[in-house]
Every structure is written in structure tokens, then in C-alpha cells.
Model the fold of this input.
Amino acid sequence: MKKIVFIALTHVFVFIGNAQNLTFQAEIANRKGDTIKILNSSNGKEVKKMGIDKKGLFNDAFAVEEGIYFLFDGKDYAPMFLKNGYDLKLKMDALKFYESIVYSGIGAEENNLLAQSTFSDSKYDYNSLLASSEEVFTKLVKEKTAADFLKLDDIKLNPNFVALQKKNIGTNMANLTAYYKKTQENKKLSGSVAQTFDYVNHKGGNTKLEDLRGKYVYIDVWATWCGPCRGEIPFLKKMEEEFHDKNIAFVSISVDLDKDFEKWKNFVTEKQLGGIQLFADKNWNSDFIKSFSINSIPRFILIDPNGKVVHSDALRPSNPELKEELGKLVQ
Done:
């Protein structure tokens, strides 16, 4: 009798222990692979990796801290709100990633809303918003924020989820507004005469912007420590080869610190960087750099043969449209 009671209690404790975890099941048509991953949105760390079972499902139970996560199927991902005690079942078609997501079970309300909001946001015309006047931009941002908040006005939703979403919406709108202001400032520079520079040239001596009059000048502002900058180098090299006999100069301006001058020289030599390689005086505080309000890199600038700004925030070399644009200018 005691043994039977002990076994029964053991099952009770196991049940209680599992109830404290999140249970998750996913049925994915046209999946990208035999595994999916769940990552923490705040630090990008992998929380769970699930393999497909004999039934063609991803199925597991695990503990989480309440919050926003990302579900990855290959390179595609979708946000999720997870907490212990949720019993979520997901059905989706990976070929119609966001629009096909449907959740059922405990926690479905929050996650269906999150999936629907993500899908509708992906369809929002941000290009038109960013191209609008300041008055229209402010009006549309307020309307979008109010509409997004209204979707959260449901007593059935987890209050912590609602608070997180409102915070995220506010942050996203603040970042969008900051980006809009930056683009407006950049537009004002178009057509104006560019601030000159007089920088040390890797090949010796100094080079001024005026030395390049009569040519288009495509400028890359970068640094040896900048990963995204280095990622653009192969594309920039290819662009230089494509236009080597055209009326355009490719100029790379390093904003490395003065103490890293030798590091910059060695890097340019070792990587066999082409074009005109220059080292900015006072790095970020150089007059030329400040005139374009550059606070992040890589940054690309296009100047015309008369020294006037064509684009204060030009397309990157990795963008296929750049070749087409330059081709029209320097025929």
C-alpha cells in the first residue's frame, strides 16, 4: 500500500514540475530544416533547439523566463511571448511565414496577436512615411502608435505582455523618428558644396577634396575595427574594378584613432585595398566627418565633379542598385 501511495505522489510531483515549464509543439509545412531554435530576444542566446519527431512535429517542454523570444526556422524568424505554464501549439507554412502563423492552447491570444502585428507591420509602407513632410510624418506616427496600442486593449491578454509590447512600440517609434530626422538633415546637404578635407594619403603626402575636382567622388567612411565596414570591402573592390577607367574616384576615409595609425597602414597593405586610402585627422571630430553628422559607420557619400553633394548617405557597394546609379552618372 505504501508503495502505491509513493508512486502516486511521484506522479503528482512530476505533473507539478512539468506544469511549471512551457510546453511547445510546432507543426510546420515546407519547413526549412529538421530543427528549429528559440532565442532570447534581449541577448540572442539560444534557449532551446528542437528536432523533428517521428510524427513530423517539433515537441518539447522547458523552463523560460517570461518575455519575448524569437522562433527560427532556417534564417526566417518570428517573435513569440513565452512564460512557464503556457501550452502552445503552432501551425504554419514556412513558405508563407508570417501570414500563416496560427497558435492554439494556453498563451495563444498573446502569440496570435504578436504574429498578426508582425505580419501587418511587414506590409506597412515605411518608405512613403519617411518621404512625407514633417507634419504628415508626425501625424502618421501618432496614428500608427494609437492603432498599435488599441490592439492591446483586451483584458484577456497577459498584462506583462501588454506592458512589453507598449514599451517596444514606443521604442520603435522613437527610433523611427530619430532616423527620419537624420534623413531630413541629409536631404538639406544635397546640392550644397561639400566640406573639404586634407588627409594623409596611404601612398604618401596629403590629399584634398579639391584635388579630385572634375570627377565624381564616392567616399567610404570606415575603420579597421568595424565589422560591417570590412564586410563591404569585397563589394567596394569590385565596384572600383568596374569603374576603374571612368570619371569617378573611390576614396576611403579611416576614422581610426591616431594611436592606430600604423594598424591602419598595415591593414590597407595586407588587404591590398584599392582606391584612395586616407586617414582622417581628429577621427570622429574631423571637420569633414562632423559636417555630415556621421556617428555610425560604414557611411557612404557621393560628391559630383563640382564638389557638390549628390548623396550624403549614399547606397552601399553591396547594394546592386549602386552600380546602376553610378553607371548613369559616369557614362
In short: Residues 159-189 form the longest helix (31 residues). Confidence is low (pLDDT under 50) at residues 1-18. DSSP finds nine helices and 15 strands in the chain. The longest strand covers residues 22-29.
